[in-house]
Write a structure and sequence with these properties.
- Chain B: Its EC number is 1.2.4.1.
- Chain B: It catalyses: N(6)-[(R)-lipoyl]-L-lysyl-[protein] + pyruvate + H(+) = N(6)-[(R)-S(8)-acetyldihydrolipoyl]-L-lysyl-[protein] + CO2.
- Chain B: It holds the Pfam family E1_dh.
- Chain B: Residues 68-364 form the Dehydrogenase E1 component domain.
- Chain B: It is an enzyme of class 1 (oxidoreductase).
- The complex is a heterodimer of chains A (406) and B (393).
- Chain A is of the alpha/beta class.
- Chain A folds into 2 domains: 83-266, Rossmann fold (3-Layer(aba) Sandwich); 278-405, Rossmann fold, CATH 3.40.50.920.
- Chain A contains 14 helices and 14 strands.
- Chain A has helices at residues 2-16, 35-39, 88-102, 126-130, 142-155, 173-181, 183-186, 216-219, 233-245, 294-308, 325-335, 350-362, 384-390, 394-404, and strands at 83-87, 106-110, 135-137, 158-162, 196-201, 226-229, 250-255, 262-266, 278-281, 286-290, 312-316, 319-321, 338-345, 371-375.
- In chain A, the strands form 3 sheets. A 7-stranded mixed beta sheet of chain A has the order 3-2-4-5-7-6-12, sandwiched between helices.
- The longest helix of chain A has 15 residues, at 2-16.
- Chain A starts with a helix and ends with a helix.
- By secondary structure, chain B is α/β, with parallel strands linked by helices.
- Chain B is 41% helix and 12% strand.
- Chain B starts with a helix and ends with a strand.
- Classes of the chains: A alpha/beta (406), B alpha/beta (393).
- At the A-B interface, helix 5, helix 6 and helix 7 of A face helix 6 and helix 7 of B.
């Protein structure tokens, strides 16, 4: 029981320290704060003294139930307000449409976003509703249309620039780094660049090396931009809306394989805080930090881990730049062990920066070195088996947790 | 040159009469705004459009303003040269002297609602848009009172309230930005145009053609101005471009070639371009101009061209001299008055330099300001973690 209160407590402290982008906007309580969810956790090994004695609880205790799901299931979710169910790409579209309705300065530009409806249907129907001047089909020139979006943003428009695949935005790297990121600073604050640059990235199903790139590692050092990664329909819509409303340039990383995730989301207007991490599953033994698609691999591994008697705390960091060191720090202070699971490459990825940040800031709280599981430093191969081996799989996560918790 | 013909034509009748008048009745510098029509020396060459007329409508007030503004810009650039050699300006410093006619001619044809965006050779464009000399010098010397608070430097002058969008260091990157500005003007129905300036070196950038394609496709009020000073740093145009007729490179986009050393021709071309862009979409203006200094202060400017060439252009085509001759031949001002004006401007510039030298450097806390709008409470560390640790506001 103590762990549940602890978990809820951690969530409430996070809630109270939200840095709202716009204080007037209703920020719906984060999903983890729903009392229903926390009550469902019957955690193995909830001793008062956590530090090193939990290992004795490695055998599943007979008094504890075997948990089939590590995530709270939704069938008895009675306290949730009537929402509506939709897929992740529909959630993105809903967010985009609501923002375009709300503010006439918001426009979308990208390849095939208009008449075609978007290569992943995120902008479907928008061109018919808002017209050609607000939903712009560009020719294939990432450098130019990203630059144009940034130029338009300098005057006050709020373009949402879509890269059909994040990897194509490498062609616009100069515009994103020098103009998007730096103009606010080099002009002494005269210009703000409220663009949103979004697109699907990550390793898909045998898409080949050039279409499986993870650009968050390349963009992370650009000063002046914010990066967020969505992983569920709820946070996809929330982050999309928050990104559009933000005065700073935001890069929203979506994942090719997550577009068809289904979830029930609230009917009312809500946004997610751009700089906040999401507590997916509170726990005691180890903090697992992840984002985007790897969240699902982690949750799958968590099922196995719980059955083995571990109690992982899973945090979806969501905000890739800047890191939500507050939530992460509180978690590290509680569990003293950190595992980072990411889809980026090992060298210079998000995990590498996060490891450095945790070591610098929370070194005293760590009982073991921070472990980081990332994709291999190879171009993503086409063959299915090879592709599987490049990316972190749940079995590897389980092994890593067992290793760290020894 | 045609101009000398022009001046000699009027001079033969008027000059002796004027000099015969006693000084007491000689009129002061004319600030008349009654129209004068002047023919440009060099005709316009056009591509896919009609050339504007060679007769430019102007007034003595305007020509005098040209002289004053160009002299101010020239003085500023020369002062920047000495400051750089005195190591008060560091890094890159790209000087515009020789090209002043472009800045003043363009300003005369447009309003402050029209946007201008240019590359790193932006000091004079900034002044033309209403920037103050002291702000320019402070920024060059990295002081807090500079136009970008000392954080931009020579290549990052901006003036939002005058629709001057900078000031960009990467060659050619400002062209898509400029087309974006034109897009926003069309989106907001501003009835204004954007002038995106770039050089002969940037004319070979892919993003130019990408942006041009989109602008032509979407009918954006974008005017792309190629400041052809014939050298992309050390490479002459004949060595870098297969087709150095930059006004024709737009292919399906109309273009106009203009004598960029003649402020009146520039004014006429910009006026024509503005009318065109508001109705028909993008147009390219190629301004045939010249820079006396090297590409930047670290380039002597004489390894890839002869000193004779530089002094030749200075003698025959200098924009300030041209306007001076015009003022004298039309009796708008006398030699002495112009010299006095130049002295005044020199003093103005020296005062601005002195004031800028006195201004303070930015505080350490300024390192972290303007990173984000409404910074998100992230902690940032400087080189020394103990000293510069700051929580972003």
């Amino acid at each position: 029981m103590s762990s549940i209160i602890h978990g809820a407590g951690a969530a409430t402290t996070t809630l109270s320290t939200f840095n709202s982008i716009d204080s007037k906007i209703l920020v719906a309580p984060s999903r983890t704060n729903l009392s229903v969810r926390s009550q469902r956790y019957i955690v193995a090994g909830s001793d008062a003294s956590k530090k090193k004695n939990f290992v004795s609880g490695l055998r599943v205790r007979h008094s504890q139930k075997l948990i089939p799901n590590a995530v709270a299931t939704k069938e008895a979710d009675t306290s949730a307000s009537t929402g509506h169910e939709l897929l992740l790409f529909e959630a993105l579209q809903e967010g985009l449409e609501e923002e375009m309705d709300r503010d006439p300065h918001v426009c979308v530009m990208g390849e095939d976003v208009g008449h075609y409806g978007g290569s992943y249907k995120v902008t479907k129907g928008l061109a018919d509703k808002f017209g050609d001047l607000r939903v712009l089909d560009t020719p294939i020139c990432e450098n130019a249309f990203t630059g144009m979006g940034i130029g338009a943003a300098m005057t006050g428009l709020r373009p949402v620039i879509e890269g059909m695949n994040m990897g194509f935005l490498l062609l616009a790297f100069n515009q994103i780094s020098n103009n998007c990121g730096m103009l606010h600073y080099t002009s002494g604050g005269q210009f703000t660049i409220p663009v949103v640059i979004r697109g699907p990235g990550g390793v898909g199903r045998q898409l080949g090396a050039e279409h499986s790139q993870r650009l968050e590692s390349y963009f992370q050092s650009i000063p002046g931009i914010q990066m967020v990664a969505c992983s569920t329909p709820y946070n996809a819509k929330g982050l999309m809306k928050a990104a559009i409303r933000s005065e700073n340039p935001v890069i929203l990383f979506e994942h090719v394989l997550l577009y068809n995730l289904k979830e029930k989301i609230p009917d009312e207007d809500y946004i997610c805080n751009l700089e906040e991490a999401e507590m997916v599953r509170p726990g005691e033994h180890i903090t697992i930090l992840t984002y985007s698609r790897m969240r699902y691999h982690v949750m799958q591994a968590a099922k196995t881990l719980v059955n083995k008697g571990y109690d992982p705390e899973v945090i979806d960091i969501r905000s890739l730049k800047p890191f939500d060191l507050h939530t992460i720090g509180n978690s590290v202070k509680k569990t003293h062990r950190v595992l980072i699971v990411e889809e980026c490459m090992r060298t210079g990825g998000i995990g590498a920066s996060l490891t450095a940040a945790i070591n610098e800031n929370f070194h005293d709280y760590l009982d073991s070195p921070v472990m980081c599981l990332s994709s291999q430093d190879v171009p993503t191969p086409y063959a299915g088996t090879l592709e599987e081996w490049t990316v972190v799989q749940p079995a590897q996560i389980v092994t890593a947790v067992e290793q760290l918790c020894q | 040159m045609a101009l000398s013909r022009l001046s000699s034509r009027s001079n033969t009748f008027l000059k002796p009469a004027i000099t015969a008048l006693p000084s007491s009745i000689r009129r002061h510098v004319s600030t008349d705004s009654s129209p004068i029509t002047i023919e440009t020396a060099v005709p316009f060459t056009s591509h896919l459009c009609e050339s504007p007329s060679r007769s430019v409508e102007t007034s003595s007030e305007e020509i005098l303003a040209f002289f004053r503004d160009m002299a101010r810009m020239r003085r500023m650039e020369i002062a920047a040269d000495s400051l750089y050699k005195a190591k008060l300006i560091r890094g890159f410093c790209h000087l515009y002297d020789g090209q002043e006619a472009l800045a003043v001619g363009m300003e005369a044809a447009i309003t402050r609602k029209d946007a201008i965006i240019t590359s790193y050779r932006d000091h004079c464009t900034f002044i033309g848009r209403g920037g103050k000399l002291v702000d320019a010098f402070s920024e060059l010397m990295g002081r807090k009172t500079g136009c970008s608070h000392g954080k931009g430097g020579s290549m990052h002058f901006y003036k939002k309230d005058a629709s001057f969008y900078g000031g960009h260091g990467i060659v050619g990157a400002q062209i898509p930005l400029g087309c974006g500005l034109a897009f926003a003007q069309k989106y907001n129905k501003d009835e204004a145009v954007t002038f995106a300036l770039y050089g002969d070196g940037a004319a070979n950038q892919g993003q130019l053609f990408e942006a041009l394609n989109i602008s032509a496709l979407w009918d954006l009020p974008a005017i792309l101005v190629c400041e052809n000073n014939h050298y992309g740093m050390g490479t002459a145009t004949w060595r870098s471009a297969k087709s150095p007729a930059y006004f024709k490179r737009g292919d399906y986009v109309p273009g106009l070639k203009v004598d960029g050393m003649d402020a009146l021709a520039v004014k006429q071309a910009c006026k024509f371009a503005k009318e065109h862009a508001l109705k028909n979409g993008p147009i390219i203006l190629e301004m045939d101009t010249y820079r006396y200094h090297g590409h930047s202060m670290s380039d002597p400017g004489s390894t890839y061209r002869t000193r004779d060439e530089i002094s030749g252009v200075r003698q025959v085509r200098d924009p300030i001299e041209r306007v001076r001759k015009l003022l004298l031949s039309h009796d708008i001002a006398t030699e002495k008055e112009l010299k006095d004006m130049e002295k005044e401007i020199r003093k103005e510039v020296d005062d601005a330099v002195a004031q800028a030298k006195e201004s303070p450097v930015p505080d350490a806390s300024e390192l972290f300001t303007n990173m984000y709008v409404k910074d998100c409470g992230v902690e940032s560390f400087g080189a020394d973690r103990k000293e510069l640790k700051v929580t972003l506001p």
